[in-house]
Specification:
Blueprint (H helix, E strand, L loop, with lengths): L3 H15 L3 H7 L4 H5 L2 H19 L5 H10 L6 H10 L30 E10 L5 E9 L5 E7 L4 H15 L4 E4 L3 H4 L1 H9 L3 E4 L9 H15 L7 H17 L11 H15 L1
Parallel strand pairs: 1-4, 4-5
Antiparallel strand pairs: 1-2, 2-3
Helix pairs in contact: 1-2, 5-6, 10-11
Length: about 280
């Protein structure tokens, strides 16, 4: 038995190929002319496509599954796969969001290992929160050779301006290092920071993304800082956090023996190096 759709197709073929009239082609196919002209499926398909277009423009981030669910809510009789194919044919697929290209700092040296005091510094950010749930951030700076904690600056937020101010104070106290190492945080790769460090004669070494071990000395310091201070105390204000953290930093430098320094404290190690240098001079 020939389907109605097939009869319509053959009738159109006879008319176009043999130049016969609609009346005759329908008579050959035993098809009523009114039946041939009436194509509710085509009308339904067109209306469905228009509705899918309308929903796709109304909800531009909806995929075909959600569009299918919206059609079901409106009592459209259509399968989910049919909706997917129509959206594909009409070019209505959701455009995948492209990941933003992450900006990276420009390293001016490949130097990674400190060979003497003030050779390589490293800095990083550590986050915590006060009792009210608001975030605080801590900028930690260390000398990688002596393991001395140079500074921990604490604030609600830290920008490149804060970083520059902390480094400027440390340069006045200790002199600028040969190289400073960090990750690619926006506070560290900011153009004003890179230009200012270049003018100060300090080379930069930015670690590869997703490679925190390349900044291992600072990561180790931050782990000790979190375990010995941040996880022990509940802060109720930034001012209180600063007092407690500065007190802990003094304890770290003056009282805590360091395994990498043969069991002496960073402060004592710095003092011994200065005495050796003075005697050698």
């Amino acid at each position: 038995m020939v389907s109605l759709a097939s009869q319509r197709i053959v009738s159109d073929y006879l008319r176009s190929t043999f130049q016969v009239s609609e009346r005759r082609s329908c008579r050959i196919m035993s098809l009523n002319r009114a039946t041939k002209r009436n194509n509710p499926k085509a009308n339904y398909d067109q209306e469905l496509r228009e509705e899918i277009h309308r929903l796709s423009f109304r909800y531009p981030r909806f995929g075909y599954r959600k569009i299918f669910n919206k059609l079901k809510e409106s009592d459209w009789k259509v399968g989910r796969e049919r909706v997917r194919l129509i959206r594909k044919q009409e070019g209505l697929q959701v455009i995948k969001k492209q990941k933003k290209k992450r900006l990276l700092g420009k390293s001016t040296t490949k130097l990674s290992k400190a060979l003497y005091p003030n050779h390589v510094w490293s800095y990083d950010l550590v986050s915590d929160q006060t009792a009210c749930g608001r975030r605080i951030r801590c900028l930690t700076v260390i000398d990688e050779y002596t393991r001395y904690g140079l500074a921990i600056y604490t604030s609600r937020s830290i920008t490149s301006g804060h970083v520059k101010r902390v480094l400027r104070d440390l340069f006045k106290q200790w002199g600028p290092p040969v190289c400073i190492k960090s990750d690619n945080g926006p506070e560290f790769i900011a153009k004003n920071i890179q230009e200012w460090l270049g003018k100060a004669g300090v080379k930069t070494r930015y670690v590869d993304p997703g490679s925190p071990w390349q900044n291992g000395h600072n990561e180790s310091f931050n782990g000790v800082f979190r375990d010995g201070c941040l996880d022990r105390w509940m802060f109720y204000s930034v001012q209180e956090a600063r007092r407690v953290i500065n007190s802990w930093l003094d304890e770290y430098n003056i009282e805590r023996p360091h395994g990498a320094l043969a069991g002496v404290t960073p402060a004592r190690y710095v003092k011994e190096l200065k005495e050796k240098r003075r005697k050698a001079a």
